[in-house]
Amino acid sequence: MKNDASGTQTLARAAAVLKHLGTGGSTGLRVSDVQAALGLTRPTAYRILNALVQHGFTARDPSGHRYLLGPELALLARAAVSHTLDLQKLCQNEVIELARETGDTAFLLVRSGYELVCVDLKNGSYPIQTMTAAIGTRRPVGIGAAGVAVLAALGTDDASEALKACRARLGDYARANDAAILSALRQARKRGYALSVGMVHERVSGVAVAIMDKREPIASLLVTSISERISTTRIPTIVASLNKHKSIIERKVLHYRTLSK
C-alpha cells in the first residue's frame, strides 16, 4: 500500500510539474521556479524534471538551466486531437469575429478540471489592447470573468470543489479575494454572464460567458479591455456578441457529438 501511495504521489507531482511548465512559454522555467510554485524540495523538483526529460516530456533550453515542455507532448497532443474535440480549432473563427465586432481582445479559455487554460486570443481594432493572458496561461476556475462564468455554470458539488481549489491559490492573485469572487458569482448567476472589474489586473475589466456541452461548462469566451471602455452602456452590446458566438460554438459542439456517435 505504501508503494501504491508513493507512486500515486509521484505521478501527481509529475502532472503538476508539466502543467506548471506550460506557464513558462518559450523561455521555460528554472528548477527554483517549479520548486517554489509547487512546494517541492529542490532535489524532488530536479529529479522529476530530469525524469520527464528522459521520456521527452520536458526539454532543457540551450543554457541547460531552464526547462520547457518537450516534443513528446506535441506528438501525444496530435494523437489526442485526432479523436477528441479540438475546441481551439472549432472556435477559431468565432474568436476572430468576437474581436472584430467588439474591437477589444477576445479569448478562448478551455476548462481542465478546476482550471481554465487560454488556448486562443485575438486583438481587436481599439488602440489599447489588454493582454491579460497568453496562450497556455492557466488560472483557477473562479478567477477573472472567464473563471467566474464557468464557476456559475457548474453544479452545486463541482462549484464547491472549484471554490476550494481557487481559495488554495488566492495568494497568487493579489487583487482577488473570497468576497469578490462570491459577489461576482452571485451576479453572474443572476445576469447570465460574468463581469470582472480589476480582479486580475488593475484598471482592466472582462466580460465572459460559459460554453456548454449539454449541461457541462467546457470553456469560456472572454472579452477584456480597459475598465473605462467596459461601461454599463456598452456591456449589453458586448454580451450580445458573446452570446451570439457562444450559441454558434455550442451548435458546432453538438454537431461534432452527433457525428462522433
Tell me about this structure.
It is built from 9 helices and 9 strands. By secondary structure, it is α+β, with helices and mostly antiparallel strands. The protein folds into 2 domains: 2-76, Arc Repressor Mutant, subunit A (Orthogonal Bundle); 85-260, GAF domain (Beta-Lactamase, 2-Layer Sandwich), CATH 3.30.450. The strands form 2 sheets. A 6-stranded antiparallel β-sheet has the order 6-5-4-9-8-7, sandwiched between helices. Strands 1-3-2 form a 3-stranded antiparallel β-sheet. Helix 1 (2-21) crosses helix 3 (42-54) and helix 6 (144-153) packs across helix 8 (178-191).
pLDDT < 50 stretches: none
Strand order of the largest sheet: 6-5-4-9-8-7
Radius of gyration: 19 Å
Would you count the extended β strands for me? 9
CATH class membership of the largest domain: Alpha Beta
**DSSP strand (E) fraction?**
15-25%
